[in-house]
Design brief:
It is found in: Membrane. This protein is of the alpha+beta class and 456 residues long. The chain has three domains: 106 residues, Sandwich (Immunoglobulin-like), CATH 2.60.40; 211 residues, no CATH class; 121 residues. Helix 4 runs antiparallel to helix 5 and helix 6 packs across helix 7.
Length: 456
């Protein structure tokens, strides 16, 4: 049994002397789908450039032993993916022979044990912090500190875990991608967590305006750089239109990402002219809105079964569903606007809908009942990052116009806000919230109802 990261010798030899003239040696790994070139020997020299990427710089012949009939192969820093059956083929003039070697039963190395311990520690710390936050009564300051530990601690531990995994397994692309994910994830968690309201000043402004976008853009840059390098190294077998389209899509995706990164940096530079910032703002808005759809198209086109005739259709379809993940349908309510006993409209909330410019989070959809189906009447959004439309409720007439009204909750805006929309016979609701109610936005404290500002 061998340990991970150790060197392994795969034996292949003959008893008699073989002249080196016209001698060819090939080591192949037999996978289920294809045979992988591990190392070749031709014209009295090894050809490491013929090896697939994962074996380059990790395999070598015992060159001095080849004239003696020893064609064994040294495999350095053995990894999990190295397990399998290897075939040695030898050709010398009209003579040929082959043998196989099996590599299995790899044991754990010290680095792999450390990786396992760190994974357990990261999971345990997340569960422990969760219990301390939600299962025990603590002061607000203590809860805030525990939430910060919950955001940063498990992710930083997993970051270190994949650094060690990269050292032990040597998979650069996998390690870089996973390290980037766990290093940048706290930016998204800060933006999404309720504790964002406990920050003040520039920190709160930065988290609300930049953290989510920075996490998405920089992570996309890392992932697609890794994919581009992988596709380039493996020389994917695309020809003609497919090869051209994959190159164009990779370039466009990386260019859009670069534009948005430049725009984010320009927002910190005040000496530039207004028209330059305006141009980059427009380009960045287009980039941020188009990138999700374009990324799906690139992955589907490069690794799926798309052909030229399907390209336009897939683009339009994916652009249409670019708001997927908005939790459409998380909240529902029926509205009998004229109070005649029959429901007239269906209200559907999508609290995780996101739009960068203007910055809005959450959307309310209003559908009218017809004889055979639903007809969408309007969409309503507010300039808030508080999970707008997370809750919906139909209300009795509030303003004396004999039409039912609607309350829409945004639980993470400030300390919780309720928007009131007055009824409308045609659209269901007035798309503008009632100003006399909005300026008295309702703050609800669930732990201490007596402090609520709800009008009595």
């Amino acid at each position: 049994m061998y340990l991970w990261s150790e060197d392994v010798t795969l034996s292949c030899s003959v008893d008699s002397h073989i002249p080196s003239k016209d001698l060819e040696i090939s080591w192949m790994k037999t996978d289920e789908d294809e045979d992988i070139v591990v190392l070749l020997y031709q014209n009295n020299k090894a050809l490491p450039e013929a090896s697939v990427e994962r074996y380059r710089d990790r395999v070598e012949f015992f060159t001095d032993e080849i004239p003696k009939g020893n064609f064994s192969l040294r495999l350095k820093s053995v990894r999990t993916e190295d397990k399998g059956v290897y075939m040695c083929q030898v050709f010398a003039g009209r003579l040929s022979a082959n043998t196989t070697a099996v590599l299995e039963q790899l044991g754990f190395s010290v680095l792999h044990i450390m990786v396992l311990i760190l994974c357990i520690f990261a999971s345990g710390s997340a569960l422990l912090l969760f219990c301390l936050i939600y299962c025990r009564s603590s002061t607000n300051d203590t809860v805030f500190r525990l939430q910060m530990f919950l955001i940063f601690c498990p992710n930083l531990i997993m970051f270190l875990t994949f650094v060690l995994w990269g050292v032990s397994e040597g998979s650069l692309s996998e390690s870089v991608s996973c390290c980037a994910l766990y290093f940048l994830r706290p930016l998204m968690l800060l933006w999404a967590a309720p504790c964002v309201n406990d920050f003040t000043g520039n920190i709160k402004t930065w988290i609300n305006n930049y953290s989510y976008e920075a996490e998405y853009v920089f992570f996309s840059a890392v992932i697609y750089s890794v994919l581009f390098k992988s596709a380039w190294d493996k020389s994917l077998n695309y020809a003609g239109f497919e090869g051209v389209m994959i190159i164009i899509l990779f370039v466009i995706v990386l260019l859009f990402i670069l534009i948005y990164i430049i725009f984010m940096l320009l927002r910190f530079i005040s000496v530039l002219s207004l028209w330059i910032i305006t141009i980059f703002r427009i380009l960045a808005r287009i980039s941020f809105d188009v990138l999700p759809s374009l990324q799906f198209i690139l992955l589907y086109f490069a690794f799926g079964s798309t052909r030229g005739g399907e390209f336009t259709f897939n683009y339009l379809y994916l652009y249409y569903i670019s708001s997927i993940g908005s939790y459409f349908g998380a909240s529902l309510s029926l509205l009998d606007v004229d109070s005649d006993g029959d429901s007239d409209f269906l209200l559907v909330g999508a609290p995780l809908f996101y739009q960068s410019q203007p910055r809005t989070e959450g959307r309310l959809y209003v559908y009218a009942f017809s004889e055979q189906n639903f007809q969408k009447m309007l969409n309503v959004s507010e300039s808030t990052t508080g999970r707008f439309a997370a809750s919906l409720a139909s209300l009795k007439d509030l303003n004396g116009d004999s039409l039912s009204d609607v309350a829409v909750g945004a639980p993470l805006e400030d300390e919780g806000v309720v928007y009131i929309y007055l009824g409308d016979r045609t659209l269901g609701i007035n798309p503008k919230h009632a100003p006399q109610v909005r300026v008295r936005c309702v703050s609800v404290y669930l732990r201490n109802p007596e402090e609520s500002n709800v009008p009595r």
